[in-house]
Amino acid sequence: MNRAQVHFEVFTRRKINAPWALEMATEDRERAIAEAEELLASSQRAAIKVSKETLDPVTRGFRSIIILSKGAVETNNRRKAEEPEETAHCITPQDLYSVHARDRIGRLLDGWLHRRRVTPFELLHRPDLAEDLDASSVELRHAIQKISIPEAQAKGLSTHEVMRTFQGLIARSIERVIKDGKAKIFPDFASAGFADTVNRISEEDVERLYLLGGGIAAYMADAQAWSEKVGLILDLADQAPAAGRPRGLALTALEQPLSEIMGSRGGLADLLGADLDLGGSLAALIRLAAAGSVRALIRYDPGLAETLPPLTGPAARLADWLEREGFENLRQGLMRRVLRELLTPRRLRPKDPDGEIAILRALAMAMTAAAGKLLPLEEVQAAFIERSKTLVGGDFVETYLKDRNDPLAEAQALVRLAENVAGAVNKKAAGRWIGGAINSLHFETELRYGAETPANKLAILASLQRAVAKAGLAEAEATVLIVKLGELGGTIESDSRFLALINQANGPVLERLTFVLRLASGESAPRGPAAERAKTEALRLLRIPETRAQLVGAPKVLESVKSMMSQAGLAA
Hints:
- By secondary structure, this protein is mostly helical.
- The chain folds into 5 domains: 3-74 and 83-182, no CATH class; 189-264, no CATH class; 276-391, no CATH class; 404-496, no CATH class; 497-568, no CATH class.
- It has helices at 29-41, 99-108, 110-116, 120-125, 127-135, 137-155, 159-182, 189-192, 194-202, 208-220, 226-238, 244-263, 265-272, 278-289, 291-300, 304-307, 313-322, 328-342, 353-370, 377-391, 394-400, 407-419, 424-438, 441-449, 454-470, 475-496, 498-504, 509-520, 529-542, 545-552, 555-568; strands at residues 6-13, 21-26, 47-55, 62-71.
- The protein is elongated.
- The model is unreliable at 77-88 (pLDDT under 50).
């Protein structure tokens, strides 16, 4: 059986007990499952299911097998009568041009549109595509059947009756586009000019967007690649009237196909690069939607430039255009797409756990900087809290630590992980991972008996202790970890008699004092027993007359000593 005889359909239920609605039909199994998971994760659907449809060559009917179902799949027969069902209400051909209708057309005819590399906008405005669809009788009939079943259930009508209604609507719509094409009512921008055409149409009592849409679709007809279509749309945007109602009309008409191209996976892959992983794609989307915010953020933190690389080619041109007024719906749509993807279980950097953390941090900073006008800050924060759950899960942590055989490296990596997760619950989970690492016998043995010098060991523990304090853990949890590291530092100092060796050294007294104060202040040793013993030693050195005399003669050293004494909690 060839591939054309098997396809996959995505159904969703918007509310518990609501009828199933067809969202997509595609020949790509993985895409169908990913789309279903994304719709469920967006919290806009109560349940999803994916069916495998196999065409029977004898009966010409389809055999269905459910391959995925999640959410409120089972129904409760006690349906609340006061809750109206969300069903389609397309009555006239004009109804098919709404945003929601075009979105549904794109899902129902996904395979057909993908093979021809066109959008629902183009299908609704190009006579040649309307004729091609009319000739695709089996595919069109099957799409009508799938959309009619939930509609019939919602309205209490027979499926055949609803199918006849949709068939009549589609027939009238196809006839209308073909007739208007033959009548040449759609403008030709090559001869009349885009700005002049828009100015003229804006003053006429006609279906302005429909006429402009026909001209735009014809203007893009010869383009073979999605990026080429984007370029042609922006060419027209550059020629749009400068102000007033004509400019608004032009940009509204152009935003429709542009949004559909950017909303398709094929369009994004062609524009941004097919080799990008999910993290790279989301970084590019944010640079498209919030280029100004990202540039300001990179000026503040230049290291983000590597994680959020600049766009090139048509994508860079589109980003420049999106900074202007006129395409706000598209910008918000791109940011919404980023949020939806963050709520899916897909990895941002499937083969690079360190990169996963880095890209999530960069995305969080960029999204937060752009929040407000494009998206509510609360939604952005909620999305990153949800995504952070994947970082503290056992599977990710196991992969993250896989190549770190050194217990100290594991602990340091876990602290970095804690720094970059959001949400109290996720911080707590990260804290448990850190606690498990530093409380292990392996960690203590490596630090106490490893090859590093006592000075290096104490400095490492001090650095780790400071990182734990800055990781944003709950105060009680952080305190336990800080105390544990301090106690281990005290054991290392005691084992090595480190302070006693410093006391026995013959070096200059001011050098010894400065070194001991660094230990006492938590800079070169963790706060705890070792730091406390260093404070005692520092006070002893300060009582020596020779020390006081040398400090009086070295004002710069005296200021440095006062600063370190203050950090160590000693009276300056």
